[in-house]
Every structure is written in C-alpha cells, then in structure tokens.
User: Fold this.
Amino acid sequence: MKRLARQLAMSGILVGLGMLTVGCGKTQDTITFYNYGANIDEETLKAFEEEYGIQVKMSEFDDMEAMYQKLSNSDIKYDVVLVSDALMPKMIEDGLLQELNLDHIPNIAQMDEAYLDLSMDPGNKYSVPYMFGTIGIIYDKNVVTEEVTSWDILWDEKYKDQVFMFDTYRDTIGVALKRLGYSMNSASPEELEAAKQSLLEQRTLVDPKYGVDNGTTMIAAGETALNMIWSGEGLNLQDEYPNLVYTIPEEGANFWIDSLCIPANAANVEGAEKFINFVSDKESALRIADEIGYTTPNKEARKEQPKHVKNNPNAYMSDELMARCEIYTPLPLEVKQLYDNVWTQVKVNLES
Assistant:
C-alpha cells in the first residue's frame, strides 16, 4: 500500500505501457484511475487493455485527504478512484461518488461477505472492496525473544532506542487508546488525555523513533527491533527475512479496507465498470495480492493462495480477533481538534 520503491518502478512501467499502446497504432478508449500509490500490477493492467481495448491512464496520490481535496476542488475528471474506509462516508455525503450499477460488476459476488455491507457503505451502493489490511507489530526475534502479544511491548524499557512508531496522529494515538482498552475512535477528552500521557510516558521509557515508510528499511537493517507497521509490509518482510515476525496484538488494531469507486463526474462510466469488474475477478485479485502483499477480499482468490498465506492468522484474522479490530470512523471537527491538540503536545515533547 505504501511501498514507494515499487510505486516509482510501476510509474515507469505505466509510462512504457502507454507508449506501447500508442506505438501499436490501436484506437483505444481511455479510463483514468486515481490510485493510492501504484497498488496494482503490470500484468493485470496489460491484460485489461488487451481484453477491452481500453487504455488505463493512472495517476497516483499518497494522502487520502489530498485526494479528497482534489476531487472536491478540481475540474479534473477521474473514472475510478481508490477510497479508504475512513473517507468513504464523507465522500458519499458530499456527492463526490456515484451509485454503482452492480449488475455491471458481477464479480462482486466473489467477495467474502465479511468485507461487504460495512458501515462505511451499507449495501455497497458506492464501492467494491479492493484490498484490506491491519496495523500491527513486526519484531526481530533475534532481539525480542519473548512472545509478542500486546501493544504493551512498545512501552517496554528493555527495548529503549529500538522501537519505531508511525508519525501519523490517527494511527499512533489509536494504538495508545487501544492499549488502554479504549476505542480507536474515542471522542472522550478524558480518554484522549490518557492516550497523550501514555505516549509521553513511552518517550521516557523507550525514546521511540518516528517515521512512516522508513520503518521497513530500519528494521531490516537492524536499526530497530519493534516496529508499528502496515500488514502488507510486515508480511512481505516476514517472507523475506527469517528473523522478522509480523503479528496483530491481542487488544486488536486498526482494520482498514480500500475500495474502488466511480467519481460523480466520471467521463467513462462504462469503462470504469469494466475495469472494476476485471480487477475484482479471481485471477486479477490473486495477481494483485501477490504483487502488493496485502490481503484480498476475494474469497475465490484466497483459495488459490499458498497455504502459508491463506492460513496465516495475522493476514486473514480469526472472527475473534477481527471483532477486536476497528475501522476508523470520520472525526467531527471538534473531535479532530482534540486529536490535533494531543498530537501537537506529543510532537512538541518529541522535538524538544
């Protein structure tokens, strides 16, 4: 989801694909895909273009709020856009997405029911699930010899200078809330104050390093031993490095699901429907999941995945653990200001 090196490589690949289709002299329709990074694989794009004669022009964004602002305040038209669960209700309410004709997207039937009809879009009137994951912990078992079951370990002074936390307010405050037994969507000033004090205490105990994508290279290089991480990166690193283990703490974590939608002002709705249906097919979903590293909501694709993937409880969670995970909900302005104030005070402490 946030694999920047692969995103850059894919950008070059997509330019090359566009040149190839033009060079062949084929007359093609076009759709524009506004994607969160390069979260798709070359083979799927090429297969879609060959089957339908529709060229995919992909633009990328690296921040959901920036995507929202662009769709809200720009005349630029996109045909397909990747939307997070947290932002979905606001985009629906603001009229930025159009209702889907699911008769034209029959492959939605391949999706696991666990990832359909969620509170962010009841009945999937506006969205088709594309990929999902969690936030969890990856650790170096050569350094951390105990079993990692709780977020508490990120506060353990034994691991001073070896802990990595996200430099993103919603995720890190959310972990502090979850560790204390509160909801990651808490609107309580008292609970948010407790989360702030917990993060300030963590600074004293372990002096964590803060960042985002750089955490994947830091733990691989032995610069840290316990990292907050997105599940896709965590599972990929676990496959690549035998000393690294990804796990979801028993308190639960943020569960996220990104979905494909058609903007209200899309220029090529028919092409967009074909594209969403194509990437929702088992074969496409299997390729995409293998390339990106995130788990697929396509139940037929999961059946075809290697056993160590499809049976991994930190990829496809048990119902019990899933029940303890939470999707972020949009924060009312006054609540967001509380989060901003907490994060500002934590950051002032970190930077002093």
Observations:
- The chain has two domains: 4-132+257-310, 133-254+317-351.
- The domain at 4-132+257-310 is CATH 3.40.190.10 (D-Maltodextrin-Binding Protein; domain 2).
- The first helix runs from residue 4 to 23.
